[in-house]
Amino acid sequence: MPNWHTSAYPVFVSTGSPPEILSEPTKGLFALVQNLIQQLQDPSPVLKEKSTIILPQGLFANLTVPFAAVLLEYPVAYCPSETVVSPFLSSATLDIYEVRLTLPDQGDVTSGRRKAWPSVNNEERHYRSVLKFSCPSHLGHSCPKLNPQSIQESLQSFFDSRIANSLLLMLSTHAISVHHTIESLDRVAL
User: Fold this and answer.
1) 98 closest CA partner among 148, 54, 58, 138
2) CA nearest to 82, candidates 56, 64, 57
3) Do residues 13 and 89 lie in contact, with contact meaning Cβ atoms separated by under 8 Å?
């Protein structure tokens, strides 16, 4: 079993009241990740022809939610209980993080030039959200890895290095920015 406490893995957080940092992820998550790796490493011609992977049947949110967080490389992975009780994190104070990619404006329709980003809901935005997630605010006080400044710095570094390896984005003027807000929501979608 891997060391889930290394920086390569997210911090696993319960969705109970109050949310807590878990010492280990949901039971069965490691096996699910191993299953995915085995399918991806399968040298058979059948795998090369199919465009999907097959996950075990009957998975519930207690596995699929943290599994998605691992795949999407979120710094925080919520782990709901097997008996899911909604709403999650109702009225909890949350640190909300959003990673934005900004490209320069490339003109407008009246000048005959295309814009880099079309308007969204009639609002001009010159960025796209690359990643957005939350973390219960109180956990940043007890876990240095979840401190807002630490998360912002690690996300900035992570996405800067990813973009540095992207030829398309290297050829354009762009910016990655990490935004942090504090909010209380009626519920959090997992």
Assistant:
1) 148
2) 64
3) no
- SS3 for 120? strand
pTM: 0.78
Instruction: In whole angstroms, give the CA distance from residue 108 to residue 94.
Output: 37
Angle made by CA atoms 79, 51, 58, in degrees to the nearest 5: 35
Cα(84)–Cα(88) distance, integer angstroms = 9
Helix/strand/coil for 75: coil
Contact 170, 163 (CB under 8 A): yes
Task: Tell me the range of 33-37, 85-89, 135-139 where mean pLDDT is highest.
Answer: 135-139
Residues counted in the chain:
190
β-strands 93-102, 127-136 pairing: antiparallel
Task: Note the pLDDT tens digit of each residue in 120-171.
Answer: 554 555 788 889 999 999 999 889 999 999 999 999 998 888 877 765 555 5
